[in-house]
Amino acid sequence: MKNDIARLRWQCRRGMRELDLVLQGFLNSNFSSLSTDDQARFELLLELPDPDLCTYLLRRDEPKDHEIKLAVDLILLHVDG
Q: How far apart are CA 7 and CA 57, in angstroms?
């Protein structure tokens, strides 16, 4: 599991500081308490390109993929906290 977190931490490092802060903050604060399904959704989300992530996390558009939308909603819920 430690290697998985290190890999995810690396994947959370993006080309945009805003994305880095949101993704790394979510990983550090919430990932370990997520269900297995939500953890898988977060990992799926990390496969998206930066422009798509930015669009979704800044609420400029919603993902069409249901699993991605659930991950985005979960992150935004914690960001809005």
A: 21
Closest CA to 58 of 13, 7, 9, 19: 19
- Give the C-alpha distances (Å, rounded to integers) separating 8 from 24, 42, 47, 62, 64: 9, 9, 11, 23, 24
Using an 8 Å Cβ cutoff, are 27 and 8 in contact? yes
Domains of the chain by start residue, with CATH: 2-80 (1.10.150.250)
pLDDT in tens, the chain (81 residues): 566 999 999 999 998 999 999 999 999 999 999 999 999 999 999 999 999 999 999 999 999 999 999 999 999 998 886
CA gap 78, 27 in Å, rounded: 11
pTM of the predicted model as reported, rounded to 2 decimal places: 0.91
